[in-house]
Amino acid sequence: MSSKWLQMFTLAMAAFLAACSPIKVLNALTPSSTFTKTSAIAYGSDPRQTLDIYRPVPAISNAPVVVFFYGGTWNSGARDDYGFVGEALASRGIVVVIADYRLYPQVRYPAFLQDGAKAVAWTVQHGAEYGADPKRLYVMGHSSGAYNAAMLALDARWLREEGLTPSIFKGWIGLAGPYDFLPIENPDVKPVFFFPDSPPDSQPINHVSAAAPPSLLIASNDDNLVNPTRNTGGLAERLRVAGVPVQTFYFSRTNHQTLVAALSKPLRWLAPVLDRVTAFIQASDPVD
To answer: What distance in Å separates the CA atoms of residue 90 and residue 140, rounded to the nearest whole number?
Structure first.
């Protein structure tokens, strides 16, 4: 795309998205021919403990599976808003589980991590019923959802409650995640983590060890919400020092929000997020 047409398209998209709900627009423009969806499966007793599954079309047996957690500062978010993520990964032959989890003020840290562990345990137990191979399991998230993914991959406490360990993951993927954010500055986040008494063990960067799964960390250079140098860069360095395989990518056309939106078919030109995720899974997932 030429720079002139790129500028015109960007301006047109910005005007269009400003007049509408951006996520609704992305989902409305998302093709439906690449997946089949099973909705509102309970993985726990709370109404928020539900998930959707996206399966590739045509169906694939023993496919890799990604459990995805969305962002929203642990205050907001809904799995229905992330159909474009399900489509993106399903179009690459991956089964996708998109899970809701309890939010503030219903709960505070660490309840949403316990929910995430339950969603992962459900996937391990039932994924094969939907064409997934539980031995080819990844956890992924954006923003606060990337925090959830990081904690499940790095801090064994949460999966241990479900009789599992982080070794079940072939790898984990974080998009624009907050991994080292004490003291908390965001007023929406402060009550979630009991500020000013936020526990140090709530930070993913404090749980890095040589046992961590291979990691893919992606961020935007222009991120005004989650500092990419401190969070993505700092965690990546800590992982490398521990000897953990880690890949990092920083993109310049995206910001905090559009980094995940770049997974959607209409916005894939912004950054090769989907290509990087797919390549990471293919490289770290040799079929036994």
So the answer is: 14
